[in-house]
Amino acid sequence: MEWYYALALLLGGLVLLMLLGLPVVFAFYGINLLGAIFFLGGEAGLNQLVRNAVDSVKQFALIPIPLFVLMGEVMFYTGLAVTAIDAIDRMIRRVPGRLSLVAIVGGTIFSSLSGSSIANTAMLGSTLLPEMYKRGYKPQIAIGPIIAVGGIAILIPPSSLAVLLGSLAKISVADLLVASIIPGLLMALLFFGYVILRCALDPTLAPAYEVPRRGFRDSLLPFAKYVLPLFAIFVVVVGSMLEGIATPTEAAALGAVASIIAAAAYRKLSWSNLVRSVKETLRVTVMTLFIISGSVTFSQCLAFSGATQGLSVVVLGLELSPFAVMIGMLLILVFLGCFMDQVSMMMITLPLFMPVAQQLGFDLVWFGTLILLVLEISLLTPPFGMLLFVAQGVAPRGTTMGQIVNSALPFVGFEFLVLIIMVLVPGLTLWLPSLMAH
Fold first, then answer.
1. Which domain holds residue 431?
2. pLDDT (tens digit, 9 = 90+) per residue, 151-183?
């Protein structure tokens, strides 16, 4: 079978199964069965599929995923994150768009403690949106910052999606986790500046209100008590990797243990919320491991059918510049992000993109970070951006999807700006990884 027929069969079959409503994991397993029979030798291919499923999920490099997830779930279910948001609220005084700025600062800090964009957005939305609406904030300046900063959790460690991307693409997980910090912080700074400027130009978007005067004890002390110790967990996790003291797995273990100790120290840890955290961690981890096991066989089917090599030859034969090829791959991801979830995008494109990236000599940490940036942008792009629906779920009654999308668009523009900067200035992405002691 010619490689392009094989590619059409595998990708077309996969898309068809998804359109029929089959869950992503089962769609991949269904097409893997077909691929194993046609391209991996029939019965021998089916045996290989089983071996792949076992081998792919017993990698030591995958252990950070459940540990990072547990870290975030403990912060979420014990209420430590909400307490930290309240402390940040006490720190920020009378500035334009005050509550939106609280959302950006608090969301960025919580992103450094949770690998989940959904949890980040849900927590900020349920905590701050009712108060914003009560104060007369318009939806475009209330909802936009929350969903925009919620997506930063993909970029700032601990990011389970970065671990998954690194594992699937054979990129150093530690380097990828550290490389995405600067783009994430740059986004947060742009969001912060935009909110202040927009609200200063149009005060009706976020009407000013009287903020109670607080002394040192009521403002700085809660920040020192509830925020700085939690931020120290992020410093330990990232710092231990930067200094070469700990591997990503060991750093994730440190973070998970530290989050549980912190919850106990603040007397917020109970048996019930610990059990809920562990149950949610197990649910996310099992789903992720199933996805990984499905992706390995899918990659093998593409390789053995000749589709991967055939596509690489065609792309390289076009004699386009490496920059043009990279832009084309990123645009494909942007397009897919309008209709697919992040994991499906990775599973479909990585087996095709990574061989091309390697042959063109791209720095894989830089290229992987660009992919992460596009995955983050896809959380906000209509019509099926995941965080748009999360925001609708937590927004006060009467908030329309149109309002949510309109509020997200300016922030999507800033995310594309950061992506362009990282494409044009690779050194910004690679600076922190270059400091790591390997």
1. 3-435
2. 898 898 888 888 889 888 889 888 999 999 999
